[in-house]
Specification:
Organism: Aspergillus heteromorphus CBS 117.55
Number of strands: 0
Keywords: Membrane, Transmembrane, Transmembrane helix
Distance between the termini: 10 Å
Oligomer: single chain
Helix content: over 70%
Structural class: mainly alpha
Shape: elongated
Number of domains: 1
Strand content: under 5%
Largest sheet: none
Order of helices and strands: HHHHH
Radius of gyration: 16 Å
Protein name: Integral membrane protein
């Protein structure tokens, strides 16, 4: 078995932190008075569930990175490679979306997570 990957461990930790921050951010934006106007509507319901699905995505991503960190050779498997590429694309797209809509702090944090994930996965691909 390959030795544990510190870069993938760092990426796992960053994703867990993103999950917590994302959850806290959701509580903040849903307390905005403008959001209260749509309470009980379909957009409200979809917004709430979608936001917390995003938080769960970050936590699952962190757990997956932790698994990859324990055995970086898993990233040589085509399915895991595809997951890593899709995941990274989603992170970059989310970062760009935040920037495009003026939510710079989220754009920077998610972009950092995307860059860290890309670096950690690329290291594993090249090393193992």
């Amino acid at each position: 078995m390959a030795s544990p990957s510190r870069s993938l461990q760092a990426s796992a930790l960053s994703m867990a932190c993103l999950s917590i921050g994302h959850t806290i951010g959701g509580r903040q934006w849903t307390s905005d008075p403008a959001f209260g106007v749509i309470t009980g509507t379909k957009p409200w319901a979809c917004g709430i569930v979608g936001w917390f699905q995003g938080s769960a995505f970050f936590m699952m991503t962190g757990l997956l990175h932790y698994q990859w960190a324990s055995n970086p050779r898993l990233l040589q498997e085509p399915t895991n490679k595809a997951i890593a590429v899709i995941m990274n694309g989603l992170l970059w797209a989310s970062s760009a979306w935040y920037f495009r809509h003026g939510i710079k702090e989220n754009g920077w944090v998610v972009g950092f997570g995307a860059a860290l994930q890309a670096w950690a996965v690329a290291r594993a691909w090249l090393k193992y």
